[in-house]
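[recover] target loaded
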């Protein structure tokens, strides 16, 4: 997150290109807020509107995670580290 590089990962059966913005804890489990810039979702195609591409994901449900060294960081204008997706934020990207 500190170097702002996307990661490729599988989550609930779909390969996704994710840009993690926040890492914290929800009910004792590690959770991340990511902007999904590519790949599929569990419902199919990725939303066209950038503001609808935020994903709140449990870290222990992520599989085959790899850093995309030459990938482009992505975000949306509606990002805020103030979210209820985590109880405690450990690290977040500043807007």
């Amino acid at each position: 997150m500190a170097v702002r590089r996307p990661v490729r990962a599988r989550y609930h059966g779909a390969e996704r290109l994710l840009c993690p913005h926040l890492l914290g804890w929800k009910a004792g489990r590690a959770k991340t807020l990511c902007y999904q810039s590519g790949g599929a979702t569990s419902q199919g195609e990725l939303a066209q509107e950038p503001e609808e591409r935020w994903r709140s994901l449990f870290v222990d449900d992520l599989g085959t995670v790899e850093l995309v060294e030459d990938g482009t960081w992505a975000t949306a204008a509606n990002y805020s580290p103030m979210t209820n997706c985590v109880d405690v934020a450990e690290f977040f990207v500043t807007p």
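[recover] notes: Residues 17 and 29 are 22 Å apart (CA to CA).
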